[in-house]
Amino acid sequence: MKGTRLSKTNEEVKKPRTGYEWKNGASICLCATASILFLNILLTIIAASRAQRSSRSFEAETIFEGNCTKAKRWSTGFHILINVLGTILLGASNYCMQCLSAPSRKDVDRVHAHGKWLDIGTPSVANLRVMSWVQITIWCLLVLTSLPFHVLYNAAIFSALSSNAYGVVAVSPDGPIVSINSTTSACYEDLVGKDVGKVQAMYQGKELEFLSKEDCIKTYGAAFLSNRRTLLLVTNHSSISSPGLFVGVGSPPTSVDDNQNPFDWMCTGPDTDIYGDFGSGTSQCLQTALLKHVNDWSVTAEPFSRNDIVVAGTDFAFTGQNYSDLLYSSLPRSTRADIMDLGAFLESPFHTVDDTLGFIQSRSWQTQLFESQLNVYMSDSVCATHSRKLSVSPPQYYSVDHCLSEKVEEHCQVMYSPAICLLVILCNAVKVICIMFTIRLRRKELLFTVGDAISSFIKYPDRTTLGRSWVDQKNAKSVFAKPRPMKSRTLPPRRRWYNAVGRRRWALSVTWCIVCLVCGAAVTTFAYIGVGEYLPNTSIYTVWSLGFSEARPETMLRYLGTYNLLAMALLSNAPQVILSSLYYLINSILTCMLASAEYTSYSVRRQYLRVSWPEGQQRSTYFLSLPYRFSIPTMAISAILHWLLSESIFYVRVYQYDTAGTLDETRTISTCGMSPIAMIFTLSFAGLALVITFGLALKRFPTQMPLAGNCSLAISAACHPPLGDEDAALKPLMWGEIVISGASEKQGEVIYREDVREESAEGGRPEEEVLRDNLVELEERSLLPLVEGEGVSIFHCCFTSREVGVPHPMRLYV
Fold first, then answer.
1. Degrees to nearest 5, angle at CA 428 with 425 and 429
2. How many folded domains does the chain comprise?
3. Average pLDDT over all residues of the chain
4. Is residue 648 one of the residues assigned to a domain?
5. Which of 6, 113, 122, 81 is nearest to 711 (CA)?
6. In the prediction, which pLDDT does 615 show?
7. In a domain, 234, yes or no
8. Which of 355, 438, 483, 769 has the fewest CB atoms within 10 Å of its CB?
């Protein structure tokens, strides 16, 4: 069957190629990279000028503080800008890396002369061996300076949440009344954060917002409360005296390693089991259970001051309710251990002074003279504690009718990290310098794609592959390992797409995919089990309720040893680098398979070459290296996976304020959060994408055309056109069988580039002039070897603009 012939066009080549066209793209990359450098410097200067100076200045500084919704929008907008700039910057860097690793025709000829080959059309570390030390240095610097953009760029600007502690007071329908003694007033202000007179004024001035019980539970049953503070629970108990009863403190400033429910005061009613699980050692007051039993919602409360036993020493004083505050003090370790033992005894509210003295005398203490320095007495002015260890027996329960809530300004922040910004600017500047040096390199005729190689080899055939038209990437090494007589090869069977990819690339890619999936499954299991310890159950519905990238105490990583911003940024973004490497490997596999699919398509239909810089009616290469029906879904899948991964492991920063509205910087939360449901989606989506990729690898190629893949030798072997096929690279090409008959002596002659160079050097004339003078003689000459005798028919397969036939399975070819 003959291939369909396309009509020849009369369009002339607009401008002769210089061989340096790749520098145009590199110059655009230089402009883009320099512009981004300028923008990064400008944004950093603006951020520094707006920064609110603090003790954490070099790690992170605040550039906005206020409304949380506005802070989130600013942060999201900056992250979109950062991702756009990062994508452009990494794309420019990758293009220049390809310019450095793409072999020139001169490189290919030199390597072929030694029976070796280079990779064409795909990034390859193997091509480094033909690079100069300058190219290798620039290439390595471009790789190294890309890492901070993968790992740290997103952490240059981030948002921080705020969490307000709030005092909860149970009051009668008449509200708080000011007439109280000084001891109760002091305890009230210490626990609620405001003096009772101010609360009374807010109550009378209608400054407190009315909330139904349902709204109260939904509003204050939050992990981090940013826009409210003091809460009054209005009950129907008129017996509650002034200034009300202390219920508890919600969302107190805590360390990330602490396991304290921020609203456990809600679940102190008579039937605590219906509100959550309190028997596992973790306080699990559940908002959903509270809403289910909202009509029966009751809480316990106690007076703000009470009688209690006080133990006073030389440098300390404590009760059974507040001794734990001394366990983290600067007291000697032995003293703190003794205080812990004695405080545990005093926790019970039913001991007397005599009981306490008897306990002290009966024990052997670690601290010398510990017993002698203690003074034990009963005090009538001991304040209740934040820890809600009630001294009232039996507990008194008060049903809630509605709530009165204090609204306050939010303190969410948008922050930037000067350290990360400076590192990004430094790496950006290095990239600009590297691209400038890349442009200065005098490298001509770079072969970026398989189409570029075909065009070059057809214009200037390679003598090392003469007569080896059935060489493919699999047997190229064995054929050219050492000199041997030229042999014809029998027609191979049709191959599958996976045959277009080398074994090493498959082994590396499959191994890395398995490692990533196994590690991802292990991390997901760890996150699922870890989060499950703080949940009532581990059903998929409960885990789903945690959401994607939602900062909650249950999802935060604890006991990490360090919570430094840089360390957390590396931890949260390191998976992104792993995903990028996985994408690179899979993309390289797709590139090899699809390039081979297009390569073999020339054996089915006649078409123009697809090259980097078209001449005549040659087609341009795809912008994203892959056909759009593959590149667009591939990029979409990559973007979705990166987004899912960012929702799976994310950075969390929370600034905590006490009941008086004072920032407690010692309790700032800086850690990473995990979303098990987002991890499950990430793994599932990644697994599906890999299954589709490996499914494509099982497709068969349309013909038995030898697979060149990215092997320069195999591509060269298929590019020896017949006699008189001039300017074939500019015409529609097809690969197939041609018949050479009546071979003559003239068919053994050909003008090679090496001969042109030698004649040019000997005669002192430019290579272009020597080549032009000798092109006339090529019309009647063939690139096939001399065949003895007249009228001998030779079957040969190659790319040609002439008519071709389909290779026969039982025929031999040269």
1. 85
2. 3
3. 82
4. no
5. 122
6. 84
7. yes
8. 483
